[in-house]
Design brief:
- It contains ten helices and twelve strands.
- The protein is an alpha/beta fold.
- Strands 1-4-5-6-7-10-11-12 form an eight-stranded parallel barrel, surrounded by eight helices.
- The chain is globular, with a radius of gyration of 19 Å.
- It starts with a strand and ends in an 8-residue tail after the last helix.
- About 9% of the residues have low confidence.
Length: 281
């Protein structure tokens, strides 16, 4: 049986770990490599470093952080943020990163996923998707009524009863709404060669009320690669829900680890007690 992974995420800004709510109101949480080393000791399966303003500020991810991590960590680690092309990815892999996380650059040029997978293997390419729920309202007086083209379009009056919500892709650290369907983009990323999907609910991020289970489940069922649930953890129960109800292959969290509320070991022991296979060393 494949074990489920527990992954601390370190959002990095100006060389420091930060954490906020809904991608804003950031507060300092410490040195990224020092925190990652502590999670390594606690039994984390891997860690993810995300330079959350690299794309927005048009700069590259800090290479020396990756090099420091390579010297101190014994577990795999992923670095994301600010990649422009294959040369940037190659530099990060050379610095020691086991994987790179591609987000905005991959959406704008999906061939980057294919090129990176061909060069370094799908296992080294993570596609990160920041998704936000968008309520789809219909102006028709009944299901399927109205005029227009495309699924769900029409005219008339009404509240759109029965029209399901969707999740749209945001870029540049949640600053740009692409209008694109997040589930469809995950399918495309997998087809292009991504080895896994890092799926973050912007609605749930930092709120601590649990993952967006419907979003996670929708993507997990649509792709045949691992999906990492991200955004919303506030309790031990949320980790289990992400796996059992969200059908995620891994669960990722930040603030509950950074501010000492939970340890990775505590989470893994809880998951094991729920009958979920995890690695306990």
């Amino acid at each position: 049986m494949l074990t489920k992974r527990v992954i601390p995420c370190l959002d990095v800004k100006d060389g420091r770990v930060v954490k906020g709510v809904n991608f804003i109101e950031l507060r300092d949480a410490g040195d990224p490599v020092e925190l990652a080393a502590a999670y390594d000791e606690q039994g984390a399966d891997e860690v993810v470093f995300l330079d959350i303003t690299a794309t927005h500020e048009d700069r590259r991810t800090v290479i020396d952080m990756a090099a420091r991590a390579s010297e101190q960590l014994h577990i795999p680690y992923t670095v994301g943020g600010g990649f422009k092309g294959l040369a940037d990815i190659r530099t990060m892999i050379a610095a020691g990163a086991d994987k790179v996380s591609l987000n905005s650059a991959a959406f704008r040029d999906p061939s980057l996923i294919s090129t990176a997978a061909a060069a370094f293997g799908s296992q080294a390419v993570m596609c990160a998707i920041d998704a936000k729920r968008q309520t789809r309202t219909s102006t028709g007086t009944g299901a399927g009524t109205g005029t227009g083209t495309g699924a769900g379009t029409g005219t008339g009056t009404g509240a759109g009863t029965g029209v399901p919500d969707k999740w749209v892709v945001y870029l540049n650290g949640g600053r740009i709404n692409t209008g694109a369907d997040a589930v469809a983009w995950a399918v495309e990323a997998a087809r292009r060669g991504a080895g896994e999907i890092l799926l973050t609910s912007m609605d749930c991020d930092g709120v601590r009320e649990g993952f967006d289970l419907a979003l996670t489940r929708a993507v997990a069922r649509a792709v045949d690669i691992p999906v990492i649930a991200s955004g919303g953890v506030g309790s031990l129960e949320h980790f289990a829900e992400g796996i059992l109800e969200g059908e995620a292959d891994a669960v990722l969290a930040a603030s509950v680890f950074h501010f000492g509320e939970l340890t990775v070991r505590t989470v893994k022991e809880y998951l094991a007690a729920q009958g979920i296979a995890v690695r306990l060393d």
